[in-house]
Task: inverse folding
């Protein structure tokens, strides 16, 4: 009898303790939960609500609009170009960035005396903020006094011209992503055990096969990570359009969903339009991310 | 199917730029006794050996002795600083590993983790313009020899250590290399598996019949696997010989202590020449040197001097009579067939190995710790070493 009682109290003690730990866990999580609620979940829900509502210029909901906002947005003649630019940036940016960063990482992989020097050089873009980079590239791309036209002996209009504006933006966004992605690729390559590379040497595997059959498969988790994050970043590109292209006559050649949203939300205070654009961009990104997870299942090897 | 000769091989590792001086006492890190020159640390020097076709040679020594470096130089993974390396009579110093027709098994297996066992073994074959059928035949043949056929579709991570090691060996033998290099292939396995794989290696060797060069720090592996053993220390070869030679006639005190387990006991003693015959003064007991050794020592010009006397633990025997040296029993280790007695003699720890049972299979129970015992040994079991150079005086 006494044993049963002891066991019971033991169980309630345990239970009490578990409740206590749970409370503690919740308390510790509270700050980030509050933060997320205020800055992540509320804006998201509000955007969804806005997209179905009639919103005035002060951002106050004046009534239910059904799908009117969507019909209006997709009917605008600048929507399709913006969508096309967004997709182009993602389609060009992601593969080129992957190619450049993997190549640079392969070149820098071996530890040499000067390794720290070019490792630093390759990662330097990381230390520049997007807006600063935009200002620097704006002056470098300047058709009249810019360094790039001068150095390569070109006479291109860059951001002043309809034909070249998007290329200028692409060069900038690719340059921006190189630093961090190179760092990720390099650390992934260096994490491959030396003996595996030595085994390929003894086995007589040529460098081409070693790269494509051994090294790249072994860093595939990192490649996948870079692919996903780059895809999202590329789809969300807006800063160059606003900072570089803002007042340019060729601005319409680079409008993306995100820059269009910025213009409509902050300049024109058309919150319905802005909400629909952000939701469209969100769904598009979500779709691509899901697609890349399909790729992950087939091609990514986790150790 | 190749002979391998190393002539005057030397390896110097250039000093690493910017490396901080470590504040360890010098003896703490492996390789601390290596010679240092202006050009760097000399990891291996004066390495000379002619390895015959189909011979099994084991490089053995404590960590940092240069055995792995030597193997990696033979493989072509490490540059040879000086000297010449010939495979089948051809100078290969400058040749890439792939052109040396070697295969190597690494300590941590170095399998390609993203490939199946089959692909791991077939990978190196695929470039050699061999047909799919031929590759398949070779892979299955090797898998059959090693008993891994059922795992061919698996990835390395789902295999046990022993199975992975088999795959690594399989990857090496499918290519039918002239020589097989193995760098501590059994070190990552647990003791039981290691014994099992050791036996399998002996069987495997009979089947594939090629030149083996094997690196280990484990003297048991060296003794059981090698046709010849190369004992190394601090970058120098200490002795090359068959396992029996190295055990019976160690060239110096280091080899004597390294080969054989438990380790040989060493004592300070004095060598005295009386009427043209040497005897050893061991703690006041005079033991005559056997005739054969006596003759060799004469030929070597050995003089009366303090020496180091080496006695293997199993050549010490317990005696009842108090005429013999006396020692204090510290720890008694019952090993089943044998008993290891850790004795304290004149402030030195020594080990004595004796049978656990007498002729009638009765346990002898008279080994109690903290008691005193007398021990003796036969003159022919003595090893005599120079007190300064450690050289064996009788070879």
Result:
């Amino acid at each position: 009898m006494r044993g049963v009682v002891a066991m019971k109290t033991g169980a309630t003690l345990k239970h009490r303790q578990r409740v206590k730990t749970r409370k503690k866990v919740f308390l510790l999580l509270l700050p980030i939960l509050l933060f997320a609620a205020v800055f992540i979940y509320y804006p998201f829900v509000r955007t969804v609500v806005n997209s179905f509502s009639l919103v005035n210029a002060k951002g106050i909901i004046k009534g239910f609009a059904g799908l009117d906002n969507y019909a209006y947005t997709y009917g605008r003649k600048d929507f399709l170009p913006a969508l096309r630019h967004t997709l182009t940036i993602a389609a060009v940016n992601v593969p080129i960035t992957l190619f450049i960063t993997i190549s640079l990482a392969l070149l820098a992989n071996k530890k040499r005396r000067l390794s720290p020097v070019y490792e630093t050089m390759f990662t330097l873009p990381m230390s520049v903020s997007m807006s600063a980079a935009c200002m620097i590239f704006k002056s470098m791309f300047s058709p009249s006094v810019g360094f790039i036209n001068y150095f390569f002996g070109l006479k291109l209009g860059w951001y002043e011209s309809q034909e070249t504006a998007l290329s200028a933006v692409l060069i900038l966004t690719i340059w921006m992503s190189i630093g961090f992605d190179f760092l990720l690729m390099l650390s992934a390559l260096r994490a491959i055990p030396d003996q595996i590379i030595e085994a390929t040497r003894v086995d007589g595997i040529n460098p081409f096969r070693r790269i494509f059959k051994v090294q790249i498969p072994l860093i595939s988790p990192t490649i996948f990570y870079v692919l996903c994050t780059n895809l999202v970043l590329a789809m969300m590109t807006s800063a160059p359009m606003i900072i570089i292209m803002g007042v340019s006559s060729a601005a319409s050649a680079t409008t993306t969903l995100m820059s269009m949203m910025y213009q409509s939300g902050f300049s024109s205070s058309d919150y319905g339009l802005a909400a629909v654009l952000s939701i469209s961009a969100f769904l598009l990104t979500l779709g691509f991310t899901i697609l890349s997870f399909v790729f992950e299942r087939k091609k990514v090897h986790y150790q | 199917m190749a002979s391998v000769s190393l002539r005057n091989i030397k390896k110097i590792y250039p000093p690493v730029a910017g490396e901080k001086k470590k504040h360890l006492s010098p003896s703490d890190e492996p390789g601390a006794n290596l010679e240092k020159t202006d050009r760097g640390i000399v990891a291996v020097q004066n390495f000379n050996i002619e390895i015959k076709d189909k011979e099994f040679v084991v490089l053995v020594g404590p960590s940092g002795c240069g055995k792995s470096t030597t193997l990696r130089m033979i493989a072509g993974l490490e540059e040879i600083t000086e000297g010449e390396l010939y495979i089948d009579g051809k100078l290969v110093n400058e040749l890439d590993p792939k052109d040396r027709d070697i295969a190597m098994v690494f300590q941590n297996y170095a399998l390609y983790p993203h490939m199946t066992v089959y692909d791991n073994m077939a990978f190196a074959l695929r470039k050699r313009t061999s047909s799919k059928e031929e590759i398949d035949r070779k892979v299955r043949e090797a898998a059959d020899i090693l008993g891994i056929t059922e795992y061919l579709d698996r990835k390395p991570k789902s295999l046990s250590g022993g199975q992975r090691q088999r795959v690594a060996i399989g990857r090496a033998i499918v290519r039918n290399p002239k020589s097989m290099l193995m760098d501590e292939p059994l070190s990552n396995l647990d003791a039981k598996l290691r014994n099992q794989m050791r036996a399998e290696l002996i069987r495997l060797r009979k089947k594939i019949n090629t030149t083996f060069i094997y690196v280990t720090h484990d003297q048991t592996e060296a003794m059981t696997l090698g046709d010849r053993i190369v004992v190394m220390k601090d970058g120098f070869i200490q002795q090359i010989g068959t396992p029996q030679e190295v055990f019976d006639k160690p060239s110096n005190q280091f080899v004597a202590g390294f080969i054989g387990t438990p380790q040989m006991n060493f004592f300070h003693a004095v060598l005295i020449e009386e009427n043209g015959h040497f005897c050893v003064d061991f703690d006041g007991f005079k033991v005559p040197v056997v005739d054969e050794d006596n003759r060799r020592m004469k030929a070597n010009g050995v003089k009366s001097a303090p020496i180091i006397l080496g006695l293997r633990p199993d050549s010490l025997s317990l005696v009842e009579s108090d005429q013999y040296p006396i020692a204090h029993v510290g720890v008694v280790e019952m090993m089943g067939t044998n008993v290891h007695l850790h004795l304290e003699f004149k402030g030195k720890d020594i080990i004595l190995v004796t049978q656990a049972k007498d002729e009638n299979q009765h346990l002898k129970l008279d080994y109690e710790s903290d008691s005193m015992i007398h021990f003796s040994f036969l003159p022919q079991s003595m090893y005599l070493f120079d007190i300064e150079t450690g050289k064996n005086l009788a070879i």
